[in-house]
Write a structure and sequence with these properties.
- The protein has about 140 residues and is α/β, with parallel strands linked by helices.
- Helix content is about 20%, strand content about 25%.
- It contains 2 helices and 8 strands; from the N terminus they run βαβββαββββ.
- The strands form 3 sheets. Strands 1-3-2 form a 3-stranded mixed sheet, covered by helices on one side.
- A hairpin with a 5-residue loop joins β2 and β3.
- The longest helix is centred in the middle third of the chain and has 14 residues.
Length: about 140
Amino acid sequence: MSVEFNHTIVLSRDRERSARFLADVLGLEVGTPAGPFLPVVTANGVTLDFATVGTDIPVQHYAFLVSEEEFDGILARLVAAGVPIQADPQGRYPGRINRNDGGRGVYFPDPSGHGMEAFTRPYGSDPASELNGVTEEVSGATVN
C-alpha cells in the first residue's frame, strides 16, 4: 500500500461554525459528528476533523487544489459572504487574487483565524508562466 494522507485535526473556537464555513465556501458537506470531531471530507478522501478547544489556537494553513469552475464558485461565495480575500499569504494584495502558474489563487481567513487557500494550479506547475506574480482585483471583494 502506498502512503496516503488521510485526516488531520483542525483546532477551532467553534467546530460547527468553522466546519460549516469551510464546507459552504468549498461546496462540500459537513459529516456526522464523531466524538469531539466534526468532519469535512474533500474529493480525494482527506478528512478535516474540526474540534472545539478552549485554548489559544496557533494559526495553521490549509490549501485546496480546485478546478477553474470550482474556483469561480468559491470566489463568488467569499465575495457574497463578505469574507476578506487576498492574493498572497502576507496580505500585500488585499481584495485581489493571484495568477501564479497560469492559474488562479486566493487566500482567506476562517472563523478561527486559520489561513485558507484555494488555487487552480499546483505550485511550480508552470514556472515560465507570464502570469507568475500577477494579481487581479476582484470586484466587490472585502478587504481588511
